[in-house]
What we know:
Layout: E1 2-11, E2 14-20, E3 24-30, H1 36-48, H2 57-60, E4 67-76, E5 79-89, E6 94-103, E7 106-110, H3 112-123, H4 131-141, E8 143-145, H5 146-154, H6 157-167, H7 171-197, H8 201-301, H9 308-351, H10 353-374, H11 377-417, H12 430-524, H13 529-592, H14 596-703, E9 709-713, E10 719-723, E11 726-728, H15 735-756, E12 765-769, H16 777-789, E13 794-798, E14 810-817, E15 820-823
Parallel strand pairs: 3-13, 3-14, 8-12, 12-13
Antiparallel strand pairs: 1-2, 1-4, 4-5, 5-6, 6-7, 9-10, 10-11, 14-15
Amino acid sequence: MHLHWLRIENIRSYASARIDFPDGSLLLSGDIGAGKSTILMAIELALFGIRGSSLTYAALLRNGTERGSVELCLTIKDKEIIIKRSLRRTRDSIKQDAGYIQVDNRKKEGTPEELRAWLLQEMGYPVEAKDKAISLVYRYSVYTPQEAMKQILLDAPDTRLETLRKILQIDRYSLMKENAERYVKGLRNSIQELSGKVADLDEKKAQLKDISERVADQKSEREALQEQIAVIKKRKELLDAQVKAAEAEQERMRKQVEQRTILISKRQFLTEQLDRTSQKIMQGKAQVKALEAKIKAVSQETGKTREAEAIRKDIKDAEQSIVEQETGIRIMTERLHNLQENAIRLKKEAQSIEEIRKKTALDREALRLLETTVAKRAALERKQKNNRQELETLAKQLGQEKATQDQSTGLIGKMKALTSCPLCLQEVPHEHRARIITGQQAIVDQKKGRIADLQREQEKLQNEAEQIAAALQKAAESERQKGMLTTRIQGLEEARAKAEEARDRQKRNLAEQEKAKAGLAGLRKKDNTLEKERVRQLEAELRQSLEDEKRKAEQRQFETFLMDKKEELSQLLEQKEKDEQEERRMKETLEQTEAVVEQARTQDRRVRETKETRENVKKELTDRQIRSAGMEASIRAAEEQYHVLSAEVKIKEQEKQMLTSQKGIHHWLKGFFIDLLSTIERQVLLSIHAEFSELFTEWFSLLVDDEALLVRLDDTFSPVVEQNGYEIDFEHLSGGEKTALSLAYRLSLNKVINDFISQIETKDLIILDEPTDGFSTGQLDKIRDVLDQLPNRQIIIVSHEPKIETFVDHVLRIEKQDHLSRISS
């Protein structure tokens, strides 16, 4: 893995920065708190995101900002990868947003967990490792703070050994052994269970043979019964055919008997109908004679008068003349009355013209005054908008000044309490702290005065805003009143126009009244007495004409009835003759069919006897079929039992084979495989221990030039220090010796991890954070030799020592001013 560049936004003391990582060794140089360690944190955030308590949101997002981000460009296996992660401040907490990973210009967005999983796959870290194990692999193969490495050396031996086993994945042999022993235990239980299952296998096979023989006997008996059923079925089919033929003949005779019965009923009905027809003929002749007498009498009574329709027309003309005169008088009277009422209403409407003119003049004057007030509203709104913008600008400035003041106050408090650097643990000089406190106190005093000026200006603008708001409210009320007055003036104008129109209509109304009075007087002079008398005479003539027409209509009705009766009488005589002929034919047919009845009775008896024989055969067939069905069910049950038992025997035979196989696996695991895993684990651990101990001794000898002081690793990978042949405790070493011991252990562990875990892609990178704490001048010179022997392509070092600048290929200086870190060179 090779780092190219890192871009950070609002991370700790950085507002915005880009850091380039060249090949070779790079030194991050700067004062205490300048922001060197933030770069290492940002790299770790880009790779893994937030991981437990080692890296928190609050520790990373810059105070006073809403969002922050890191973007890292690196190369893994010749693939250029860019990964970006973002932080966002909410009301209650800080959260990590979704980001993206770009591989060879192919961008893919994802959640923080998905980005981490994708990158770990590219880095070749073990897939089965958990979050903590992945953290340890990166921590001990790429970047470990020096103080954290010292803590590893001080851990309990069992804890240290277990940690190394997890990092180097040696614990998988123990896990495999535990799984194998657990599997052996399960095999033992399975063998016992299978032994119990196959114990009755021979007994089941004997039962299977018995069932097979019983089924064969039942099938032979079923075949004999089926032959009997076939014979009975043929006999039944023959009887079915005989019954069918007999029933057909029976049906034919039954239809003949039914036809004879119907014929008897028809002859009886025909006889009764002949009697009724004779009676109707006698009644019809009597009715014809009576109708001829009535027609003669009505003809003698009828007189001669005018047609009723002509009389009605004369009456209608006379009545129309009378109605027209009376209608004209009524219409003219109503018109005169309506004209008089309209005249009164129009007079009232015309009298309101002068009053409407006065009201209109007053409203127009009030409208002119309101328009003057409304015209000022636009200027007030512009003034209000400018006032709001000035207030917003002041609020932002006030917030910025207060934030700066709070930061300076907080830094003063921290510097007063600070005695040593939290990263390198060196004592901070008093002069350095006093210089920072004095500078920050000057900033606080300056900001206090500036804040007071801004607050006074803000109060002035707020008072002005209240005055503008009151004036705008008054202008809005005037605009509303203006609309009301405009509407009212329009109403008054319309009312005046209507009143003037009413005055013109009043003049026309008076002229129409005079015309109506003259017309009414002319209609009342006419006399209609003669017309009414003529109507009474015409009505008397109409009544006589109607009586004559009624008698003529009655005569025509009688003549129609007479013709209908004569026609009906003629039809009755013809029908009687036909019925008499039909009755004679029916009598002859009945005499010919008397023998059919006896033949039908004989055929019914023959059909009944044949059916009884067939029912007996059918019952015998049913008995045989029931026996056959019962035998079939018994055979099916036996066959099902055979199949079930056969399947059970087959399963037991398979279980027997499985039992033999499991016994072999159990013997192999118990007698060979588990012991082999213990041997492999022991050999691997010895091999790693040998390489680790040799590298540890070599690195320590390079860093500490003291032949009396020797180091090695014991069986738990704990460092053992000997001086002149005596073991000494780690705590009794000097500061430089402790650092040298920790650095040697760190470099040895890095080499062992890179050699043993072959698939990881982070071998080319190592980060050393303050690796020379407490070193003497002579030991510092040894760092040059260390850097020359490190095989890594990229080496990033964080240190306060100026001398190291002469050992490295590149130097990156970091400065911090006004709480902001920046890259100076």
